[in-house]
Amino acid sequence: MELSSRETWTVIHGLVFGTLFLLAFAGGLAGLWSLRPGLLTTEGIKERMGRLYVGVWVMAVAAWGAVITGTWIVYPWYRVKLSPVGEDAYAGCAGAIVPNASCSPRDFLKSNVSGQTELWHNLGMEWKEHVSWAAPILATAAAFLVVYYGPRLIARPWLRAAVITMFVAAFAAAVVGGAFGAFLNKIAPVL
Amino acid sequence: MITDFKPGRHNDNEVAPELAGLNLEDKADGPGAAAMIAAGVGVFMMGLLTVLSEMSEGIGSFLSDFGGNIGVGSLAGKSTISVIVFLGLWAILHFAWKQKDVDLKKAFYIGLGLGVVGMLFMFPPFFTLFKG
After folding, report:
1. A148 interface with B at CB cutoff 8 Å
2. Do A45 and B86 touch (CB under 8 A)?
C-alpha cells in the first residue's frame, strides 16, 4: 500500500500527533490523579514527577503539532474550490461518490450528491476546526502548572483539581477534533 | 487579589510530610494565575473571532488575509491572533506577577468562565446565529 503526499500528511496530523496526544493524556491523567498525600514516598515522588513532566509536555507539543499541520497543511486541501460553473458552486461534484480531482471534500459534503452529507461540514468540520485550537492552549498552560508547582500539587488538592480540569478540557477539545476528523476522513477523504 | 510574595505562606510539608525530604522552596502563585487567565483568554479570543467573522464579511476577509494565498480562510487569522494573544498576555502577566501572590481560585474561575464562553462561541449552532 502506498500513501500519497496528502494521505501521509493526514496520517501525521491525525494518527501520529493524535496517538501521541492520547497516550500522553492517559499517562498524564493517571500521574496527576495519584498526586495525593500519603500515597507516595519521597523517592517515589522524584521518580514519578520526571515521568509526569515529560508526559504533559509531550501532550502539549502533540496538540500544537496536530492543529498546526491540520490548519495549515491538510485543511486547505479539504476546502479548496475546484470546479464552480457559474452559479453552481458544486458543479464539479455532479455524480461523485467520493471527493475527486474536480470536487474537494468540503464541496462534496456540501453538495449532498451522495446522501445528506451537508451537516458533516456545517457541524462537524466547522466545530472541529475551531474548538481543536483550545487543546494546545489548555494543554500548554496545564503543562506549565504541573512543572511550576511540581510535587507541591500533592499538598494542594484544590490546585491539583484545577490543573486536572484544564488537562481534561484540553482532551475534550481534542476529542471533538479527533472524532470528527476520523469520521470526515471516512466520508470525504482528502485524496 | 494581588499581594507581594511572602515565602512560607503555604504549609505543604504539614499537609504532605513526604515532601519534607525534597526541601522544596515556596513559590509565588502569580505565574500560576497568569497561565490560568491567559489560557482562558486564548480560548475566549478564538471564540470571539469566530463569532465576529460570522457577523461581518469584512472581518472574515481580514482574518483570511493572515493565510496569504494558502487557502486556510478566516481560520488563519482566528488561530494566529488567538495564539499571539494567549502567549503575549501570558508573558506579560507572568513577568508582572513573578514575585506576587495572586488569588489562584479567582484566577482559575476567571479563566474557566472565559474558556466556557469561548467554547460556546465556537459551537456552530451558536455562532451561526450571528451570520451577517
Report:
1. yes
2. no
At A144-155, the pLDDT tens digits run: 999 999 999 999
Q: Which three cell numbers stand for residue B14?
A: 504539614
Exposure of B18 in the CB half-sphere (CA atoms within 13 A): 17
Nearest CA in chain B to A40: B18
ipTM of the complex: 0.96
| CB count in 10 Å sphere of residue A176 | 20
**Cβ distance A108 to A96 under 8 Å?**
yes
Say if the Cβ atoms of A130 and B86 lie within 8 Å.
no
What is the rounded (10 degree) CA torsion for A146, A149, A153, A159?
A: -80
> Which amino acid, residue A44?
G
Q: What is the pLDDT of residues B21-40, one digit of tens each?
A: 999 999 999 999 999 999 99
